[in-house]
């Protein structure tokens, strides 16, 4: 069986944000799947989505610091019409990616103990973000 819907993640500040709960709460139909895959596709080019540490919030702060060093804002980018944070946001989005696939087992996301879904917001003043959630699998 297939299910697909678009959810909206609330506006976040620049940085790496744990959004697992927000996504799962938006997908009550997950409970109906005995086995399957949840595919998440972020419909934006200046943010990204990733799996990483869900326990220690300093990991998220270190991720933001690390990516700001890897992709500095003060390079002489040609694409600068939307502000100095826009082009670095596109580069970070390309490096991290805009999609995830997560297994579903007995109605729950089958992630590691310390794994969580991150919305990686790369803009200083972004709005809410849309994620297309596609579930494929065998239902109960």
Summed up:
This protein has helices at about 20-25, 55-70, 85-95; strands at about 1-10, 15-20, 35-40, 45-55, 100-105, 110, 115-120, 130-140. The protein is of the alpha+beta class and about 140 residues long.
What order do the strands of the largest sheet run in, or round the barrel if closed?
A: 1-8-3-5-6
Profile the largest sheet: 5 strands, antiparallel
Q: Estimate what percentage of residues fall within beta strands.
A: 35-45%
Helix content: 10-25%
- Contiguous runs where pLDDT drops below 50 for at least 5 residues: none
Give the C-alpha Rg: 16 Å
Order of helices and strands: EEHEEHHEEEE
* Overall form: elongated
What's the assembly state of these chains? single chain
Number of H/I helices? 3
Distance between the termini: 11 Å
SS elements, strand count = 8
Tell me, rounded to a whole number, the average pLDDT: 97
Structural class: alpha+beta
Commentary on this structure:
By secondary structure, the protein is of the alpha+beta class. It is built from 3 helices and 8 strands. The chain has a 5-stranded antiparallel beta sheet with strand order 1-8-3-5-6. The protein has a 3-stranded antiparallel beta sheet with strand order 2-7-4. It starts with a strand and ends with a strand. The model has no long low-confidence stretch (mean pLDDT 97).
């Amino acid at each position: 069986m297939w299910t697909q819907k678009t959810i909206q993640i609330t506006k976040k500040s620049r940085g790496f944000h744990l959004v697992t709960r927000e996504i799962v709460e938006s997908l009550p139909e997950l409970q109906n799947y005995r086995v399957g895959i949840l595919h998440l596709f972020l419909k934006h080019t200046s943010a990204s989505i990733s799996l990483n540490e869900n326990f220690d919030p300093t990991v998220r702060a270190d991720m933001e610091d690390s990516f700001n060093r890897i992709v500095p804002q003060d390079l002489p980018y040609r694409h600068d019409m939307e502000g100095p944070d826009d082009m670095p946001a596109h580069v970070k989005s390309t490096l991290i990616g805009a999609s995830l696939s997560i297994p579903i087992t007995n109605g729950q996301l089958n992630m590691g103990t310390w794994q969580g879904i991150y919305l990686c917001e790369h803009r200083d003043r972004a709005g809410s973000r849309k994620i297309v959630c596609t579930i494929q699998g065998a239902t109960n």
